[in-house]
């Protein structure tokens, strides 16, 4: 239990340093700063694999699935890459939300900070629930597998440009609870309007981001559970990937058009993980196979996006937007 407490305390320290020291004053996150912080978070996350090895080799953490230290490290890295890759799709949606609510770049980091904090809490609850389900009902893994395949199909057929946060069910429900104003007053989430406390666009964006992340978690958590049912590996890999989401957003959100084929990489990853779940009791794939499929899929999407010229009609549409 103390390992969990120490890990959560470490996450709290990271968050406190982020908002209280490094980003105490609101400012626009430039690509260079975002790149440095993305490298820092990736280094921390991959470096944590050494902690995973030490914990499982020393027996200081519960090992309900009887993993060897080397296998635990492979599962952790694979789970981390899955969550990191699926977070790319989250970046696309966050960019649409910020644009829809006209959130100034100077305040976007603060909104994401509180969004990430809420996501950590929700993800933790969903991971505990998901692990408990798989442990008690083995057949649930087939349900997760079918769901991931359905998600991959929907992602393949969907058009992200159709998503309008202001027309979403989430936005309509929040408006029923809070009076809403279009006024932005610094980084405040609420302002006084004619004696009434009203939610600003920052708060509305935060809530929509928070609840859409829960929907994304319905994909990413079953995907990681396909790799391992060890609760600490699932939790730590998921949370460390989420912590790096903010800097990754500011790094790649300005290059969304360049990564137009990355969605196909995510489709391949989700489909592979879904099939792995469905055939988990018949075929046991080595961990390096999963790691290779995920890595190659991501690299293929990035290389294809950079190497294949954009069609003229696509360029015209992008210019009009």
UniProtKB/TrEMBL annotation:
It is found in: Membrane. Its main location: membrane. Pfam families: TerC (PF03741). The keyword Membrane applies. It comes from the Bacteria. Belongs to the TerC family. PANTHER family: MEMBRANE BOUND PREDICTED REDOX MODULATOR (PTHR30238), THYLAKOID MEMBRANE PROTEIN TERC, CHLOROPLASTIC (PTHR30238:SF0). This is TerC family protein.
